[in-house]
Amino acid sequence: MTLTHGDLTTFYIGGDRVAPSGSQTIPVISPATEQPFAAIPDADSADVDRAVAAARQAFDHGDWPRLTPQDRAAVMIRLAEEFEKRSEAVASTLTAEMGCPITVSRQAQVPGGVDLLRYYATLADSFDFEQRRPTYDAANSALEVVVRKDPIGVVAAIVPWNGPYFTLMMKVGPALLSGCTMVIKPSPEASLSFAAFAEAVEAAGVPPGVVNIITGGAEAGQRLVTHPQVDKVAFTGSTEVGRRIAGMCAALLRPVTLELGGKSAAILLDDADVESAVDELLVWLLFAAGQCCVAPSRILASRSRYNEVVDAVVSAMERVPFGDPNDPAVVVGPLATASQRDRVLAHYRQGVREGAKVALGGGQPAQFGTGWYVEKTVFRDVDNAMTIAQEEIFGPACSITPYTDVEDAIRIANDSRFGLAGSVWTSDLDTGYRVASRLRAGGLGVNNHRLDCASPIAGFRESGIGVERGIEAIDEYVETKGILVPR
Ligand code: NAD
What we know:
This protein has helices at residues 45-61, 69-85, 87-98, 102-122, 164-178, 194-203, 218-226, 239-252, 274-285, 306-319, 338-353, 387-390, 406-414, 429-437; strands spanning 11-13, 16-18, 25-29, 36-41, 130-134, 143-151, 154-158, 181-185, 211-213, 232-236, 256-259, 265-268, 298-302, 357-360, 377-380, 397-403, 421-425, 443-446, 457-458, 464-465, 467-468, 478-486. The protein is of the alpha/beta class. It has two domains: 11-260 and 464-486, Aldehyde Dehydrogenase, Chain A, domain 1 (3-Layer(aba) Sandwich); 265-446, Aldehyde Dehydrogenase, Chain A, domain 2. Helix 2 runs antiparallel to helix 5. The longest helix is centred in the N-terminal third of the chain and has 21 residues, at 102-122. It starts with 10 loop residues before the first strand and ends with a strand. The structure holds nicotinamide-adenine-dinucleotide (NAD). Nicotinamide-adenine-dinucleotide is lined by residues 158-163, 167, 185-187, 217-218, 221-222, 225, 236-238, 241, 244-245, 259-262, 293, 392, 394, 420, 459, 464. The active site is at 259. Pfam families: Aldedh. This is aldehyde dehydrogenase (NAD(+)). It is an enzyme of class 1 (oxidoreductase).
């Protein structure tokens, strides 16, 4: 294992460790100590060209797109195994670079990615890469239709720092199964651990050029998105950057999948088991210190049980261990960057200015000398029109909004520019399903607020375009062809 928490000095291109063409680097700063401890290379246009050329070569002239899905799936299983072998190195590096508590890095960040790779490998036999059907036009009765789903080509995959491996494998899984090749650019705040991922790619025998990894910031990402030899862009990140990428792809008529921000609602109906609902909601609300796209950051409680719900959330949240991300007992650590900390604190202040009441936290904790910590925070008496109920805070915070009846709860849940996830909590499963079906969000649950590899999630409105997870995501990585052939 070559991985350390030291500098990353190379890219992974065409199956080789390749030195950057320039000398530009980006420092990696510890969210817990605020000290720089490593650096990553910032890819320039020559580096992006080399990575895309390697992916292009592997797609146009290599075996990968021409293997059977079953053969590609076998490589993906090996990749999952090799990545899993490196899980401790990946977890500890992620904790060092973006501050995710070590237990969460071990139990969620890495296994979440491994499961997605294995899941997509299982779909080799069930996805219809080729299908035959009868013709319809009378004049074509001597013909039949072959529908082929061929790989779309070279995929540029750009991912954020909060959940770098599950956001990545939602792309790698369907892209590799379909026969695409890829250039991956992680976020500068979570790039160091990609050295271990490159090792896994190599050890698994993924053919050279099929998976290429470069590091860098926004400019490197933009060069990749607009590179003339890229066929498709798959992006996970903020709505703001997603909007910019959508514009670039529109000008190029380039297919793009966007998984963006969220402001997900959890509706606690009157007959909900509040305690178990709150226990599960906090897992996602506090994942990576609340830097979680599907966080149930808006909890909706009926007026009749409002105080009970507020008390349950406050007392459960108070108990969640908070502090040094290297401590295995800690569940909530610091935020990933100083600007993220400042943004979250600005939201806390805005909430108070607009009339929300702080039921827990609301500021910067006094007990830490250094580190980008913010307090776990619960706002009560939140009107859904307030900024804290409309904007993604991306910190360990939730707002609790009262509703009058079920229709009012549905209206409030849907009153958002986002539409990523949501959940309904009730002892009447039929009602729960009926209410969940009316929510305008892509990933929903009844008496759970979870993700599953097999359950598709598609951002409504400003939460994105296209589907990730589930067999449906494979369609984002193929082009559909109809070939009329004699019967
Ligand atoms: P971000 O948008 O700032 O950056 C995401 C990635 O895009 C990074 O790799 C970054 O280097 C790159 N990038 C930045 N500017 C670019 C440009 N102009 N062109 C090309 N690439 C560019 O997001 P972030 O702060 O890293 O992540 C947090 C955001 O991600 C939150 O809004 C969160 O909700 C969202 N997110 C969404 C999902 C989902 O599945 N919907 C999952 C995780 C995170």
